[in-house]
Design brief:
Strands 5, 6, 7, 9, 10 and 11 form a six-stranded antiparallel sheet that branches. A three-stranded antiparallel sheet has the order 3-4-8, with no helix packed on it. The chain has a two-stranded antiparallel sheet with strand order 1-2. With 327 residues, the chain is α+β, with helices and mostly antiparallel strands. It is built from eight helices and eleven strands. Helix 6 runs antiparallel to helix 8. The chain folds into two domains: 215 residues, Immunoglobulin-like, CATH 2.60.40; 85 residues, Dockerin domain (Type 1 dockerin domain, Orthogonal Bundle).
Length: 327
């Protein structure tokens, strides 16, 4: 296809290394002009969902940064050249790796500005860089072909407030006989890609996109011998996986020991035996929080004394009654 020539240094339409390295592309397959397209039949629901979302009623059709880029390779090239290099407040990082045909993946998204009111959604998918198949349209080498969504095909709604990151983990398995056991399709696992992008679902603007070869990502980020998908401290070296409070967050990265910060122990103090102490000082801490709302996250987690999901004067009264009735 003419489109693929943009990525070939020996082709006169080559767009250059800077563009190639930053152009994330995905090809969705349709049921027409050939209803027997194996790439479409492998996942018709997800690909139809994206066609419907973009309002595509004829092919070829391209979209760049969520906008219609026309139906020809040259207009797609112009769209990419116009969009690549634009500043964006969003960053995406991908970490993980392959265990046989199983993909373990962690996606982290951050924003430098508040996008919490923009209908922001995260899409994560798998594609394959090259699949060989004699298609009805004469194409043999099919590039950047969509395989599957790891998120819903409508994306995952996320909140990017400019302060807190969004992090999600995924486990996904590629069928060894993809697509649908069609032996006429030739592919290699080393060509499997992960693609993630953040999109304004209303305007279709894509804030950021990132891709990585699945088997070239780091399956053990902290080099502690525990794969990311099983590591209770993914970013911090802790081969012993110690987790004293058994909350699935390892001691090395757990800000709160749940055996200390039990309900009512708002200041996290202990007696000489190492047991949590609930006393008048916890009442002071709770009162201070209600007036100032500036304490550590561990204290806040144990302040909802009456269990109504609101921290207020009613919790002070509840804690006071507990202390008065205690021995």
């Amino acid at each position: 296809m003419a489109f693929d020539g943009f990525f070939d240094p020996d082709n006169p339409t080559y767009v250059g290394a800077d563009v190639v390295g930053n152009w994330v592309r995905v090809k969705y397959s349709m049921s027409w002009p050939s209803s027997s397209d194996p790439f479409y039949l492998a996942n018709p629901s997800d690909q139809t969902a994206r066609r419907t979302y973009y309002g595509v009623n004829g092919i070829p059709a391209g979209f760049g940064n969520g906008s219609n880029a026309g139906g020809g390779a040259n207009s797609w090239r112009s769209s990419a050249l116009a969009n690549i290099g634009q500043e964006t407040p969003v960053s995406i990082s991908l970490n993980g790796g392959m265990n046989g045909y199983e993909l373990q993946l962690e996606v982290s998204v951050s924003a430098e500005s508040d996008l919490s009111g923009t209908g922001t959604r995260l899409f994560v998918m798998t594609t394959i860089d090259s699949a060989l198949y004699n298609a009805a349209n004469g194409v043999y080498d099919h590039r950047s072909m969509f395989i599957d969504f790891l998120t819903p095909n409508t994306g995952t709604i996320i909140t990017l407030d400019g302060i807190n990151d969004h992090t999600a983990s995924y486990t996904w398995t590629l069928q060894s006989n993809w697509p649908n056991g069609n032996t006429g399709v030739i592919w290699d696992l080393s060509m499997l890609n992960v693609v993630a992008f953040v999109q304004n679902y209303s305007t279709k603007e894509v804030y950021q996109a990132e891709s990585a070869r699945a088997n070239e990502m780091n399956p053990d980020i902290d080099d502690d011998g525990i794969l990311n998908g099983e590591d209770n401290c993914v970013d911090i070296y802790n081969p012993d996986q110690a987790d004293v409070d058994n909350d699935q967050i390892g001691n090395m990265c757990d800000p709160c020991n749940d055996l200390v910060y039990v309900l009512g122990n708002t200041n996290g103090d202990l007696n000489q035996n190492g047991d949590p102490v609930i006393d008048i000082f916890d009442l002071f801490t709770l009162s201070d929080f209600i007036h100032e709302e500036s304490l550590n996250e561990c204290s806040e987690n144990v302040m909802n004394i009456n269990g109504d999901n609101h921290i207020n004067i009613l919790d002070v009264i509840e804690l006071m009654q507990y202390l008065m009735n205690s021995d």
